[in-house]
Amino acid sequence: MKTLILLPTGIADVPVAALDGRTPLEEARVPHLDRLAREARVGLVRFVPEGLRDGSDAAVLSVLGYDPRRQAAARGGLEAAGLGVALGPDDLALRMNLVSTFRGRLIDFNAGHITSVEARLLIEALQSALGSERFSFHPGVGYRNLLIIHGGADLDLITQPPQNVQGAPFAEHGPSGAGGAELSALMDAAADVLAAHDVNRVRVDLAENPADRIWAWGPGRAVLLEPFELRTGRRLAVVAAAPLVRGIGAAVGADLVDVPGATGSWDTAYAAKTEAALAALADHDVVVLHLAAANEACHVKDVRLKVRVIEEIDRFVVGPLMTGLRDLGPARLLVTTDHMTSTVERAGSRAEVPWLLWGEGITPVRARGFTEAQAEAGEMHVDEGFRMLEYVLGGAPRATERPASGGRATESAETAG
Prior knowledge:
five-stranded antiparallel sheet, ten-stranded mixed sheet, alpha/beta, 2 domains, 417 residues, Alkaline Phosphatase, subunit A, 14 helices
């Protein structure tokens, strides 16, 4: 049986006042998702265990059946793997955002969604000016780039994701711990290089946010995980533009599918990625199709953009996937999101996210649609998200069931569908 996992990061949200108390998923017109929900099993899952930072590094590992509490897989190492940058045993890799600041504050953690072409020119300038036996700069996708500290594997750096400190004085939230002062000095030196670059001069002339600083975070060494095929007996392919997700795929031995036009943002090549995912199923048992579009829309705090993105995913991805999978024969489709990203305050977000499982051997519960509320009303809540894959592939994860009488009772999912 073939299995496709559709992972539109950030598609789930909290109720938004601008939408009269509805979530973007409730507001969007999504006939294909709604049809799937009527033919599928719907519920909630928690991919990020309590105590871990709510992010795609832990969540995507969990989606693939790896317990993120037990895996030594820090973001920097994963992003290096996703960009094809080999790390030596003494290297420390960090995700490096190009960011925008104003009067000492970090105001935009993605520098106005700077393009990959612009970013590459800036990274090349940084490597030329500041690259050394100690530091090297590597271009990635848009604002997502990579810094390697050679000989830094033993550093105990403490860093913060820039999206968590947006609007705050950047000097108060910079790197600390062993190596923190050295890294801060590098970030300050990089600001001088970036300020003088023509890319930023043009961006200022066009009233776009300049990429005037770097922000290094998520330090990690080379990642080695048990191969997915060895764990499950199934061959895996990953269709993604985001370096982190590609890195997780590489770390578990997946085949990475390159798609021309895929941007890792909301203006990505939906149709091409969908076609690539269906084509990959011809010689793979499991395919993950990752879309960063809804998450990127959240970053600009534009709820209407997020609604539009969800509708485009429904039209250009979900609809064609349904047709393609029906023609393929026995197959299953899991639609979920690795974590919630809110267009309002992150404090309003919840740990659990909706999921929908459709296809061979799945008994539908006939939900009225695929929304956060319908998932909440579903009878199956998976509290240990890394066990969800067992069910998706035909097994029985531990789950918390909602009996018809209300309340919650623990029961094995083996009794369902």
